[in-house]
Amino acid sequence: MLCLTLTGNTLEKNTEYIELYHTMSDLCELRIDLLEQMNLQDIIAFSQQAQLPLILTCRRERDGGAYRRTDRTRTGQLNRLLREGTWAYVDLEEDFRRGELEQIARERNIRIIRSFHDMQRVPADLFSRIERIAAKGEIPKAAVTALNIRDALTLFSAEQQLAHIEKKIILAMGDYGVPRRILYRRTGSLLTYASPPGTSAAPGHLDIESMKHIYRSDQVNSQTNIYGIIGNPVLHTASPRIHNPAFHKVGINAIYVPFLVDDVRTFFTFADRLSVKGFSVTVPHKQQVLPYLGRITREVKQIGSCNTVVWEREYWKGINTDYYGFLRPILNLLDGERIKRAAVIGAGGAARAVVWALRNHQCSVVILNRTPQRAEELARQTGSSWAALDDTASISQVDLIVQTTSVGMAPDTDADPLPGYTFRGDEVVYELIYTPEMTAFMKRAKLSGCSLVPGKQMLLGQGIMQFETFTGLNYPFTEDTVVF
Ligand code: ATR
After folding, report:
1. CA distance 420 to 383
2. Whole-angstrom distance between the N-terminal and C-terminal Cα of the chain?
């Protein structure tokens, strides 16, 4: 079940949230500790009119909530709400057994979710506590904190030990817990919580629209093929929006999840455990995955970095779709020899893929970089030439300029990576930055009449290639119809 946590500080706001999002949710959690005013009569009326089943929760500050009054006051308030309101569940903490509340819940057929929270770690006695609660006929809920990918792995392993407990909720707070929230049906959790878009009820909460429409978490089952992206950071990436809607469109049962990863080796164990079928790799892991791959393609070897890993029956295979994503928009121009000479600005990781792609297509390359030693090194390895960033005469004849540095990226959007260069107007200008979609450098090139290749094309191109590698199917959207 997808549970919308009502994060509004008034009942009016929460009514609005239910109206907006009830079609995406199976039930709602009313967090009365977040309300500005604790008017019990109004809360009772709200519970009676809500369109969805409700969980009643009053979370204390020490458990990550906002309730500051005494346990005695809380007991009195919950007592009345349980007696007079309409609730499907009530969430009571493990150390808050009151007898009277449990009795009212039983009498009124309100299921008890018995929760415990650890804002610091995954507690060592997690499993035994869950067992103890389940033995009492209550639904155990553990909200613990995953501090690294190993914690995330430990929690996934928990499922095997606790598989006999049919109804349980085990959540990991924080960014390492995001895959659990999305894959809640694979973790044996009764439900997952999500926030109204634009709000967040707990660390790592996703919004209900993403859960329902991007990830379709409630459709995941034991047959769903799991794909994802590893990186650090990773949660901001556009890739889930490239892949998930496409899986749905072509009608295959698969999901693509962002995995925050601090340790690549542990992630490979995690991937085995979860039967991950393939994943994208982003900063800073593109080199670190190499030792774990059973096969790599020529470009991965040349570039020394891999952005796509796919399971091939017995081993992980690594490819570099940045390479193909880059080539895709200009392949005709290269093959038709419209582009024979290129300048590449920058000598970092992205530049390596670009330079090798051009060199493998018989294009001569001159590399310009702020730090000349890096340009020189890359030039030596790839059979290119190099020049200082202000030596614009060295590129006066080129047909293509590829901009691979971060100069001009949001928020510093006025910055120009090559201020001393005057465009002739017949060069093709390829910008790798995609936020903003139009950089200062591109604007200047456009004014001179150059044709442009925006970074979004490469981003999409590499994503398309990943999709095709993962599924063996054509990507179902074009640049105009994809939304990300
Ligand atoms: P990526 O993988 O995105 O290429 P990277 O490997 O860190 O990232 O490379 C960043 C590139 O942007 C480098 O060429 C870097 O120049 P240096 O080698 O001199 O560091 C370039 N770059 C970053 N900030 C820059 C700036 N303010 N001015 C000029 N070049 C810059």
Report:
1. 26
2. 26
Judgement on whether residues 201 and 329 belong to the same structural domain of the protein: no
10-residue mean pLDDT profile of the chain (484 residues): values are 97 98 98 97 98 97 94 97 98 95 98 96 94 97 96 88 94 94 94 94 89 97 97 93 96 98 98 96 96 98 97 96 96 96 96 97 97 97 97 96 96 95 97 95 98 95 95 90 71
Is residue 145 one of the residues assigned to a domain?
Answer: yes
Residues 424, 438, single domain; the answer is yes
DSSP element (H, E) containing 359: helix 349-359
State how far the alpha carbon of 446 is from the alpha carbons of 339, 432, 438, in Å.
18, 16, 10
In sequence order, what DSSP letters do the residues of 168-223 get, joined into one string?
A: -EEEEESGGGHHHHHTTTTTT-S-EEEEPTT--SSTTPEEHHIIIIIS-GGG--TT
- Residue 350 Cβ inside 6 Å of ligand 1? The answer reads yes
The yes-or-no answer on residue 317 being catalytic is no
Task: Please tell me the pTM assigned to this model.
Answer: 0.92
Pocket probe mutation, ligand 1, options 370, 389, 404, 418, max atoms within 8 Å of Cβ: 370
